[in-house]
Amino acid sequence: MPQACAAFGCTNKRNIQNRDCGITFHKFPKDPGIRKAWAIAVRRKDFEPNDTTVLCSCHFKADDFDRTGQTVRVKEYVIPSVFASFPDHLNKVPNKARSTRTSTRRSTPLHLRTSVV
């Protein structure tokens, strides 16, 4: 049962070569709040992870892992944060200053406004 990383633009798949490179795969958490945070971090439109959806270790920081046992696990409450650059439509757009007539009037001090009747 081959599994591929769900991150946008990531081509890592669960196979021998990636395992030999130290890449591990981690299922989305069962906790609905953390699962939603992971899904938001992935930034895929209409993406709904299921119980078998995975992310590879490339999308986590080195200190996000618990390596004390035989199995490498993601620490509790960790959100993936390492992603390659997203295309423009997935990047957050900064808020621009409004330039409507109302907002322009709002930004001018009250004593400088001229009343138009």
Write up what this structure looks like.
The longest helix has 11 residues, at 32-42. The protein is built from 3 helices and 4 strands. A hairpin with a 6-residue loop joins β3 and β4. It is 20% helix and 9% strand. It has helices at residues 16-20, 32-42, 101-107, and strands at residues 25-27, 54-56, 65-66, 73-74. The chain is elongated and about 75 Å long. The chain has a domain at 16-87.
Strand proportion: 5-15%
Let me know the average pLDDT: 80
Helical content band: 10-25%
Largest sheet: 2 strands, antiparallel
| Number of helices, counting only DSSP H or I runs of 4 residues or more | 3
Topology summary:
Layout: H1 16-20, E1 25-27, H2 32-42, E2 54-56, E3 65-66, E4 73-74, H3 101-107
Antiparallel strand pairs: 1-2, 3-4
Summary of the model, kept short:
The chain is an alpha+beta fold and 117 residues long. It contains three helices and four strands; from the N terminus they run H-E-H-E-E-E-H.
